[in-house]
């Protein structure tokens, strides 16, 4: 049994934009460390890396369509729920601090 899922134009555009960011992030990282270094780490030739990069756009889009984002290894990734919780806690803290300052007469 086959199910057909309709993809909205907005979702297609979002995937395209994320795919472009993924591709850009990968190209910047490879440029930073060089294709030769990447090849050595993978145990392949630099020309293999060059050929792989020729098809990078398609792989970057595949990752984006699957809901994945490429980020540097030293980045901190926080999901939307964690960010919302952190913002809520920060807001409550700052609100309390402001109320304390008002009570102390030094707004």
Automatic annotation (TrEMBL):
Determine the domain of life of the protein's source. Answer: Bacteria
Q: Name one GO biological process term.
A: regulation of DNA-templated transcription
A GO molecular function for this record? DNA binding
What is this protein's record name?
Phage regulatory protein
Lineage per the UniProt record: Bacteria, Pseudomonadati, Pseudomonadota, Betaproteobacteria, Burkholderiales
